[in-house]
Amino acid sequence: MSVRADQVGDERAAASVEAAGVAPERAATAGDAAAEPSQGALHNRIERHVRAMIETGEVSPGERLPTERELAERLGVSRMPIREAIRTLSAQGLVEVRGRRGMFVAPRNVDATVEQLTTVMMRQRAALDELLAVRRLLEPASAQWAAARADEAGIARLRSIVARMEAASAVEPPDYDALRACDTELHVELAVCSGNAVLRRILEAIQDLHDEQIVTTQRYRGRLRQTLDDHRRLVDAIAARDPIAAHDLMLEHLARTEVAAHGRIDGDAGR
């Protein structure tokens, strides 16, 4: 009687593991079943693996992903959690399922790029916080010095950048690529107007990180209009030769940037 009970227990354990998406040949005993990851853990592991393939360029936009069978063999799981992970990635715009043709990395678009960058930033939140800390340290001084030292040609360049930002925001949908380029250009131009060559080189060196941060924050609730207003007021303070106002306005701008960046990362996209 006890032998039969043990057999039934083993069969149930094996069935439970198979339902969790683990290949049945790996589910020999109840002890093995307890050691296997849950279906949710498998789903997350598969999703992370496919995301990494895309983010590292192993598979480029438009290219075909490995088949369900190939992914299952590579990761040592059944095909069921593979399908679930692909459904999630498809809903996020990163993967396209084209019937019998297979699974493909979706062509690059703004929403997918934002989603991908947000995922990277979530894993590197400490790096984002460090970037914002450096910007809080350097950029208020940059704005303050620009207000004290900028010549008329520099102020004209700043106003031109703001005008281009306003034009890019006036179309529907807004031209986010142009807005991002102008945003980066404005912050570097402030350093140019400050007259400090070392500061300029430092700010130019962090623009790749700054650019990623802009992509992450520019669609945050009300962020576009607020950014335009911040930049317009900042340039007005510089044109008015008011170093204290320029310093304080930059600090306020960076504080709002930090709120938007953390809001986007924490899922409060506010679209």
Overview of this protein structure:
The protein has helices at residues 2-19, 30-35, 39-55, 68-75, 79-91, 110-123, 125-149, 152-170, 176-194, 197-205, 207-217, 223-239, 243-265; strands at residues 95-97, 103-105. The chain is mainly α and 271 residues long. It folds into 3 domains: 1-36, no CATH class; 38-108, Winged helix-like DNA-binding domain superfamily/Winged helix DNA-binding domain (Arc Repressor Mutant, subunit A, Orthogonal Bundle); 112-265, Up-down Bundle (Four Helix Bundle (Hemerythrin (Met), subunit A)). A two-stranded antiparallel ribbon has the order 1-2. A hairpin with a 5-residue loop joins strand 1 and strand 2 (103-105). The longest helix is centred in the middle third of the chain and has 25 residues, at 125-149.
Treating each run of at least 4 consecutive H or I residues as one helix, how many helices? 13
Largest sheet: 2 strands, antiparallel
Based on secondary structure, the structural category is mainly alpha
Into how many domains do the coordinates divide? Answer: 3
Distance between the termini: 63 Å
Low-pLDDT windows of residues: 1-35
- Please compute the radius of gyration using only Cα atoms: 26 Å
Overall mean pLDDT stands at 78
Helix content: over 70%
Series of H and E elements: HHHHHEEHHHHHHHH
CATH superfamily descriptor of the largest domain: GntR ligand-binding domain-like
**Strand order of the main beta sheet, please?**
1-2
- Assembly status: single chain
Named at the architecture level, the CATH assignment of the largest domain is Up-down Bundle
